[in-house]
Amino acid sequence: MNIKTNGILYQSMMLGNDQKVNYVRQGAGEPVVLVHGLAASLHDWNDLLPELAASGYAAYALDLLGHGESAKPAGIHEYTVENTFAHFSHWLDSLHLHTPFTLIGHSLGGGLSLMYALRHPERVKALVLVNPFYDLSQLPPILRKFFHHQLVNTSLIERTPYRIFRFLVDVTSFSTYVGQRETHSLPEHIRYQTALDYKRASSGIYNVPRTLPSSTLELSRVTQPTLLLWGGRDQTLAPASFPSLAESLPNLKGKHTFPACGHVPHQCHPDDFNPHVMKFLRNL
Predict the structure, then answer these.
(1) Interatomic CA distance for residues 278 and 284, integer angstroms
(2) What span, in angstroms and rounded, lies between the C-alpha atoms of 201 and 65?
């Protein structure tokens, strides 16, 4: 199914393993692939996609397995990093991109981007990592304990109404910084979409983090030019893990912290975030 709206091509297809993938393409030119994080969707990139297209890039963004409008397997055991990676990798193959592409990955999407660059280095031109989730040690102790065991009963998550997700998003995005004009670090439309993405994602996705393999021993093999960006107030992943990652990447071309932003700096202040990405791409 293909639907074109305001220059954005919304598409869905069945992969070879009979799993649906939902994605969007905007613009024409050198390919840039954007990968969202856990419990998010391709709408994470609504502010960056048009800027990429306007600058002469073909920008692609997908809903990962179990997210958005993509396939949602019924079995809890099917939600692993390897299965999520396979769904992502098969989708990339289906695009038939003939030139190496840049991967822009946030959180879990950053971890998947690192995995792809390690497994298919010849296909990846460069990396932009945004608060990347690459090791369980990045999680706070309480989340580490939560994700340590496979979830068996997810009915409570499935029955949680939108208004509860919205309340949690509003609370966690509330800004307590003195002197800031906004009362939330995330604008209203972002908070609405974030809560909606939580609600429509399969509850099985919360089993994915526990299967994440440690990438720390392999980071020295990531030779692609890399830009590392993160929010200084991240409450999901330890902010101290990002400078440590920067030291392990052999071809780091730039790094930047957004002090007032949390886990989603690309949505917190896109007017500050996007120029860093565009400058990096122009200088490749």
Answers:
(1) 10
(2) 9
pLDDT 10s digits, 226-265: 999 999 999 999 999 999 999 999 999 999 999 989 999 9
pTM: 0.90
187 CA to centre of own chain: 19
Q: For the chain, which domains are there?
A: 2-282 (3.40.50.1820)
Report how far residue 205's alpha carbon sits from residue 67's, in angstroms, rounded to the nearest whole number: 8
Task: Give the pLDDT confidence of 123-181 residue by residue, as tens digits.
Answer: 999 999 999 999 999 999 888 877 776 665 556 666 777 777 676 766 777 665 545 55
Name beta bridge partners: 127: 103, 226
Residue type, 212: L
Please enumerate in sequence order all residues whose Cβ is within 8 A of that of 33, keeping only pairs 6 or more positions apart, or say none. 59, 60, 61, 92, 101, 102, 103, 104
Amino acid at 171: V
